[in-house]
Design goal:
Blueprint: H1 2-24, E1 25-28, E2 32-38, E3 41-46, E4 49-52, E5 58-60, E6 64-65, E7 69-72, E8 76-79, E9 85-96, H2 99-104, H3 109-125, H4 130-135, H5 137-152, E10 157-168, H6 171-244, H7 248-263, H8 277-289, H9 303-351
Antiparallel strand pairs: 1-4, 2-3, 2-5, 2-6, 7-9, 8-9, 9-10
Helix pairs in contact: 3-5, 7-8, 7-9
Length: 363
C-alpha cells in the first residue's frame, strides 16, 4: 500500500512538473505580441519566438495581431447640408503599433475606431451638399484620416488609410440624377450633331466656292483665248482684204449676201425683196464676166500709193452700201403700197355693199 501511495504521489509530481514546464514556455508567432501581467500588474510584452514566464505568477494575455488590418463598417446614415440622407460605407486600414496601449488604454479599440469614424464622417459630410459629397471623396478621406490618426495615436494604433466605399443617395435622388445625366447626354449629342452639320455645310460651301472660282477662271481663259482667236482672224481678214485691193462691186455683192440675214431680226415681221435686185445681180454678173484688174498683191507699189488706194476703196464701198440701202428702202415702200391696194380691193369685193374699207396700215 505504501509503495502504491508513493507511486501515485510520484506520478502526480511528474505531471505537475510537466504542466509547470508547459506553462512556463510560450511561443509567439511572427507579427504577433502578447502582454504579460505579474501579480495583476503589467510586466512586459512577449516578442515573436520562444519566451519563458513564471508559471502561476505571470499571466499571459491573448495574442495581438501587429499586421495591418482592414475593417469594413456597415453603411451609416448621414445627413448632408441640403437635408438629404445618404448611406455611406467606409473601409478602414489600421495597424497596432503598441500592444500595451492597445490593451490597457482602451477596452475595445475596434469599436472605438468604428464609432469615431461614424462621428467624424457625420461632421465632415454635414457641412457639404449632395453634389459636393459625391465629388469630394478624397477630401472626406483625408479629413477622416487626420482625425482618426490623431485620436488613435494614444491607443497604440496607426490609421494608414480611410476609404469611402459607397455613397448611396435616396432612390428619388437617383432617379433625378439619371434624368439629369440623360438630358446632358442628349444635349451633348445634339451639340455634336449640330457641329457636324455646321462643319459639313462649311466644307460644302468651300467646295462650291473653289468650284465656282475654278469655273470662272476657266471661262475667263476660254473667253480670252476666243477673243485672241477672233482678233487674229479679223486681223488676217483685214490684211487679206487690203492686200487684194477689193473694188465697190465686191462690196455690193457682199451686201446682197447680208440681206437675208438682216431679214432674220426679231423685230422684222415681214421683208420685201426689192425689184432692183435683178438689175443688181446683172451688174454683179457683168462685173465678174469682165476682165478683173490686176490685184495689188501682184504689182509693186509704195506705201503711200497703198494708203491712197485704200482710202478710195473705202469711199467707194460706202457709196455702194448707201445706194444698196436706198434701193432696198424704195423697194420696201413700193411693196407695202401694192400690198395695201390689193387688200383694199379684196375688201370691197368681199363686202359687196360698195362701201370702201378704211385705209390704214395692216397689222
Amino acid at each position: 500500500m505504501e509503495v502504491s501511495a508513493f507511486l501515485i504521489a510520484g506520478l502526480l509530481v511528474a505531471v505537475l512538473a510537466v504542466f509547470t514546464v508547459v506553462r512556463a514556455v510560450r511561443i509567439v508567432p511572427q507579427a504577433r505580441a502578447r502582454n504579460v501581467e505579474r501579480l495583476g500588474r503589467y510586466h512586459r510584452t512577449l516578442n515573436p519566438g520562444l519566451n519563458v514566464v513564471i508559471p502561476y505568477i505571470d499571466r499571459v494575455y491573448p495574442v495581438i495581431d501587429l499586421r495591418e488590418q482592414v475593417v469594413s463598417f456597415k453603411p451609416q446614415p448621414v445627413i448632408t447640408e441640403d437635408n438629404l440622407v445618404v448611406e455611406i460605407d467606409t473601409v478602414l486600414y489600421f495597424q497596432v503599433t503598441d500592444p500595451r496601449a492597445a490593451a490597457y488604454e482602451i477596452a475595445n479599440f475596434l469599436q472605438a475606431v468604428e464609432q469615431l469614424t461614424v462621428t467624424t464622417l457625420r461632421n465632415v459630410v454635414g457641412s457639404m451638399d449632395l453634389e459636393k459629397t459625391l465629388t469630394s471623396r478624397d477630401t472626406i478621406n483625408n479629413q477622416l484620416r487626420g482625425v482618426l490618426d490623431e485620436a488613435t495615436g494614444k491607443w497604440g494604433l496607426r490609421v494608414n488609410r480611410v476609404e469611402i466605399k459607397a455613397i448611396d443617395p435616396p432612390q428619388s435622388i437617383k432617379d433625378a440624377m439619371e434624368k439629369q445625366m440623360r438630358a446632358e447626354r442628349d444635349k451633348r449629342a445634339a451639340i455634336l450633331g449640330a457641329e457636324g452639320q455646321r462643319q459639313s455645310q462649311i466644307l460644302t460651301a468651300e467646295g462650291d466656292k473653289q468650284s465656282a472660282v475654278l469655273r470662272a477662271e476657266g471661262n475667263r481663259t476660254a473667253e480670252i483665248l476666243r477673243a485672241e482667236g477672233q482678233s487674229r482672224a479679223i486681223d488676217e481678214v483685214f490684211q487679206a482684204v487690203h492686200r487684194n485691193d477689193p473694188d465697190p462691186k465686191l462690196l455690193a455683192y457682199q451686201y446682197l449676201q447680208m440681206l437675208p440675214q438682216l431679214a432674220q431680226g426679231p423685230g422684222n415681221t415681214f421683208w420685201v425683196i426689192p425689184g432692183e435686185v435683178t438689175s443688181a445681180l446683172q451688174n454683179v454678173s457683168r462685173a465678174f464676166s469682165e476682165a478683173l484688174p490686176q490685184s495689188a498683191a501682184t504689182r509693186e507699189a509704195s506705201s503711200d500709193d497703198l494708203a491712197v488706194q485704200a482710202a478710195k476703196d473705202a469711199a467707194k464701198a460706202a457709196e455702194a452700201a448707201a445706194e444698196a440701202l436706198a434701193d432696198a428702202a424704195e423697194a420696201d415702200s413700193e411693196a407695202t403700197g401694192a400690198l395695201t391696194a390689193r387688200r383694199a380691193v379684196e375688201g370691197v369685193e368681199g363686202r359687196g355693199d360698195g362701201a370702201a374699207p378704211p385705209l390704214g396700215p395692216s397689222s
